[in-house]
C-alpha cells in the first residue's frame, strides 16, 4: 500500500487564517504536544502522514509531520460534497498528540511561509480542475 499525506491548515473557527488559528503545539523536552482540529482535510482519515500547521507561540505558526496512526489522532465523518466527491474529505482532531521534535519542519515560526508555498501550488491545481469541469459542463 502506498503512503499518502495530507495538508492541515483550515480550522472550524478560523478557516485558513493563521493568526486566528487555535491549534497549538507546546514543547515538552524532546517532543511537542499538539492539540486542535483541522477541517476539510483532503485525505482525512486515509493518509499515513499529516503536515499540520499549529501555533508554537501566540505569534508563531510552525509546521509538523504527524503520523496518522498515533494515539490521539481522531477522525470525523466523511464530508458530503456536491462536487469533487472522489476525494475523501474529513475533520482531523489532534488530542494531545506527542510529536518528536525532529518532526518539526524547518524552524519554529517557519509554518506560515510553508503554508503559503503549499497554498500557491494548490490554488493553481484547484483553478485548473475547476476550469476543466466548467468547460465540460458547457
Attribute tags:
single chain, 138 residues, alpha+beta, Butyryl-CoA Dehydrogenase, subunit A, domain 2, 1 helix, 20% helix, 42% strand, globular
Would you write up a description of this structure?
The chain has a single domain (5-137), classed as Butyryl-CoA Dehydrogenase, subunit A, domain 2, CATH 2.40.110. It is 20% helix and 42% strand. The protein contains one helix and eight strands. It has a four-stranded mixed sheet, covered by helices on one side. β2 (24-28) and β3 (31-42) form a beta hairpin. The protein is globular, with a radius of gyration of 15 Å. The N and C termini lie far apart (38 Å). The mean pLDDT is 88.
Radius of gyration: 15 Å
Total domain modules: 1
CATH-assigned fold name? Butyryl-CoA Dehydrogenase, subunit A, domain 2
Give the CA-based shape: globular
CATH class: Mainly Beta
What characterizes the major β-sheet?
4 strands, mixed
**Element order, helices and strands?**
EEEEEEEEH
Task: Give the name of the CATH architecture.
Answer: Beta Barrel
How much is the average pLDDT? Answer: 88
CATH superfamily annotation: Butyryl-CoA Dehydrogenase, subunit A, domain 2
Count of alpha and pi helical runs:
1
Low-confidence stretches: none
Amino acid at each position: 500500500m502506498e503512503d499518502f499525506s495530507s495538508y492541515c491548515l483550515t480550522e472550524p473557527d478560523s478557516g485558513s487564517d493563521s493568526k486566528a488559528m487555535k491549534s497549538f503545539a507546546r514543547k515538552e523536552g524532546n517532543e511537542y504536544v499538539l492539540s486542535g482540529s483541522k477541517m476539510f482535510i483532503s485525505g482525512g482519515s486515509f493518509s499515513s502522514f499529516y503536515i499540520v500547521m499549529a501555533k508554537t507561540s501566540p505569534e508563531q505558526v510552525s509546521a509538523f509531520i504527524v503520523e496518522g496512526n498515533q494515539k490521539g489522532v481522531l477522525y470525523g465523518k466523511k464530508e458530503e460534497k456536491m462536487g469533487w466527491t472522489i476525494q475523501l474529505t474529513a475533520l482531523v482532531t489532534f488530542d494531545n498528540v506527542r510529536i518528536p521534535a525532529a518532526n518539526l519542519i524547518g524552524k519554529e515560526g517557519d509554518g506560515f511561509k510553508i503554508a503559503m508555498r503549499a497554498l500557491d501550488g494548490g490554488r493553481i491545481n484547484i483553478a485548473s480542475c475547476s476550469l476543466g469541469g466548467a468547460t465540460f459542463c458547457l
